[in-house]
Amino acid sequence: MGHHNMRIPHFTTGLLATAAIFLTACPPTYPKCESDDHCKDKGEVCVQGQCAECATNANCKDGFVCDANKCVPKPECTGDSGCGEGKKCSKGKCAVAEVKQECAADDDCPSGQGCTKGKCATTTNTSKNACAFEPVRFDFNEYNLSAPVQAALAQYADCIKKGSLRMTLEGHADERGTDEFNMVLSQKRAASVRKYLVDLGVSGGALDTVGYGENKPAMNGSNEEAWTANRRVEFKKR
Description:
This protein is of the alpha+beta class. The chain has helices at 2-25, 126-130, 147-163, 179-199, 224-230; strands at residues 45-47, 50-52, 64-67, 70-73, 87-90, 93-96, 113-116, 119-122, 136-137, 167-171, 207-211, 232-237.
């Protein structure tokens, strides 16, 4: 019995040592971390004991920067000089410099002219042009409607109501940003156009929306011309 009792402390010590090793081997529970290895399964990095999308711009894909440990679209500009003629830098985005519009509708123009993108232009068939349903375009990372777009949609609303048309509004985005981000943005653009048309009296049942993200570019290329052409909503008759 004496020999048996003396073996107990050794056995207990072994259990405690094993438990200590086991506990030491367990990594922190997500999102807590001690190193980047604890976050790599989520595609993240360790920042002050917490897993996060990024610690520096180097952790983000091209076209994105690290802001408050989140990868966000890189600002399009930091000053007016980076935006080109006729545009200015506003909140990190190149926007068309405010220009006084000549017109908001065809009735604002002289006889023989129609209102196109806020300007009066000569046309042989104003009614036909008003119902051409040209794509409407958006500023970088925006889904709000500019004044020229609102003017065009006012004409489109009249055409849809008079012709009892049914339309699918197809939203699109340029190539910058993740697929998921651009898909959501394109859907918001289509929804924004639909809401404005409904506010103008178009039946909601006559309008469907769909977002294609960056998957159906109107123009291929990685430049401002292509990006501008691809930030759009197109109108397809059903």
